[in-house]
Each structure stands twice: as C-alpha cells, then as structure tokens.
Amino acid sequence: MNKKEREYFTRLILEERQRRLAALGRLQGTLNEIKESRAAEYEEEVTLSDDKEYLSKLIEQDARGLEEINHALEKVLDGTYGRCERCEEPIKRARLEAIPTALLCMDCKRQEEQESLGGTVERQERVQRITLPGEDDGEREDLAIGAEEE
C-alpha cells in the first residue's frame, strides 16, 4: 500500500472514529438524562429501565467499534494496514472502503464465519441425537401431558 492509499484509508478510519465518538456522546447524554429523570408512575419506570438497557447496549457496541478503529490505526502506524491478519495477503480495496477497520480478507472472513457456525451445527446435531429413555430399544414412552395410564 502506497503513502497516498494509507492517507486515504487513515482519513476514512478517522472519520469513522469521529462518527462513533459523536454517537457515543449522544447516547451517553441520553442515558444520563434518563438516569437523572424521576418517573412518577410504574409504567414510566419500566420504560425508562428498558431505555437504559437499550442505550447501554448501544454504547457498548460503539465502544467495541472504537477498539476496532484504534486497532486499524495501529496497523496503519506499523505498516501492516490492508493485510489480512490470518493469511497476510492484501485485503481488496473495495472491502477496505466498505469496512475500513476490516482485519481479514473475504476468504478468511468466510472461513471464520463457517468455523463459528460449524460449532453451532455440531451442537444442534448432538442435541438432535439425544433420545428419551426407552427410545434406544425401539420402545417410546408416551410423555404427552395428560396421557391416560393403562
């Protein structure tokens, strides 16, 4: 990656950081307003509690995004920006323009997603193989609620 490209992507990353910081500031301000407000009725208290939880999750998500941005900026500084962290091949420009904080090329990202889904599929298959007592020998117990005993 040449100097002009590094400057371009650094600018994209810094713009994303500014956007995230502004969003965090707005969310934090709204959360502080909710915490300071005194609800007079129970319904309002429940709504405010739900709002606080939702805003807290958004703040947490933006904070993680800032960590990704800082990591990308560190990669710019050490000269490894634009290289896949897994296979070390260059990440395509279109991917970096879409996601300036991308750490993996598309092939490695797909592989990572398949690996994470693989664990889910294996768990689902194991759960499906679990049998009820008596099913192993071909006899199935009637477990219906309210089933009459004979």
Question: How would you characterize the overall build of this protein?
Answer:
The protein is an all-alpha fold. The chain has a domain at 3-81: Four Helix Bundle (Hemerythrin (Met), subunit A), CATH 1.20.120.910. The chain is 67% helix and 0% strand. It has 4 helices and no strands. It has helices at 3-36, 42-78, 93-98, 106-129. The protein is flat, with a radius of gyration of 25 Å. The protein starts with a helix and ends in a 21-residue tail after the last helix. Residues 139-150 have low confidence and may be disordered.
How would you summarize what this structure contains?
The chain is mainly α and 150 residues long.
CATH topology title of the domain at 3-81: Four Helix Bundle (Hemerythrin (Met), subunit A)
The CATH superfamily of the domain at 3-81 turns out to be DksA, coiled-coil domain
> Helical segment tally?
4
* Reported CATH architecture of the domain at 3-81: Up-down Bundle
Uncertain runs: 139-150
Summary tags:
67% helix; 150 residues; mainly alpha; Four Helix Bundle (Hemerythrin (Met), subunit A)
Task: Spell out the blueprint of helices and strands.
Elements: H1 3-36, H2 42-78, H3 93-98, H4 106-129
